[in-house]
Amino acid sequence: MNFANHRSIRSYEKTPVPEELLEKILQAASRASSSGNMQCYSVIVTSDPGIKRELYAPHFQQSMVLEAPLFLTFCADFHRMRHWLALNEAPENFDNFMSFMIATIDAVLASQNAALAAEAEGLGICYLGTTLASCGEIARILRCPQHVVPVVGFSLGYPAETPPQRDRLPLRGIVHRERYEEYQESAIREIYGEKEKAGWERYMAIPELRKMIEESGVENLAQVYTTVKYTKESHIAYSEQVLGCLRAQGFMASV
Question: Per-residue pLDDT tens for 116-168?
Fold first, then answer.
């Protein structure tokens, strides 16, 4: 498989994913690296149309949630392990923020293993950042118990489109040798030069996004990111929602 061929798929065929193929993908997820080999994550596979309709709103009404035959939600999960600890009269730790971060990293690693395995089999995926942004509501819909928090998810199915690949920063922009090297202004402009052009052209080619951009009065891609797409106010609000979910799910015991 050529890992450089990844693209996000938002339109899917109605063909269901065979159970044996799904099992193969989930097995790949289970072989991901894991902190302490604890595998402190869970995967919730959703195919029921009714449940997908419930997930549609907290996923910001993105069509992939309904259109793809499957939606996979990867959760930071210390519920299962804490239960095992209790059965063996061991201290029930892992109810703090550090534990949440460890479980989140495990979940993300497992999700990427699954994504790569799916793409190797000709399936398409699209990661949805709304999984974390709406983790509290998604946890409610999926009936996640204490110490389980949805952190990342993606739609899964056979692609009904072949969209162009998105631009990526050049390696010289993201790779440092030996130590972190601070960027000079000239390097920043060079690193982001191609992205500024390609990203701006892509947004302006989509009518609804073009209208939003023109109404906001922004003049470049950097302003699109922080004035239209990811405002400071929205990220503060999402931060509060995520922290609220962590408290509700028992991951803030010592904070």
Answer: 999 999 999 999 999 999 999 999 999 999 999 999 999 999 999 999 999 99
Which of 68, 94, 67 shows the shortest CA–CA distance to 80?
Answer: 94
Nearest partner of 131 among 238, 226, 7, judged by Cα: 238
Contacts (Cβ under 8 Å, ≥6 apart) of 136: 241, 242, 244, 245, 248
At residue 250, φ and ψ (nearest 5 deg) are 90, 20
Could you tell me the strand order of the sheet in which 41-46 lies? 41-46, 70-77, 148-157, 124-128
Domain ranges in the chain are 3-163+234-248, 171-231
Q: Which CATH class for the 3-163+234-248 domain? A: alpha beta
**172 in helix, strand or coil?**
helix
Q: What is the pTM of this model?
A: 0.94
Distance from C-alpha of 109 to C-alpha of 40, rounded to nearest angstrom? 11
**Over the range 114-145, which residues count as b (16 or more CB within 10 Å of their CB) and which as e?**
bbbbbbebebbbbbbebbbbbbbbbbebbebe
Strand residue runs (E) in the chain: 41-46, 70-77, 124-128, 148-157
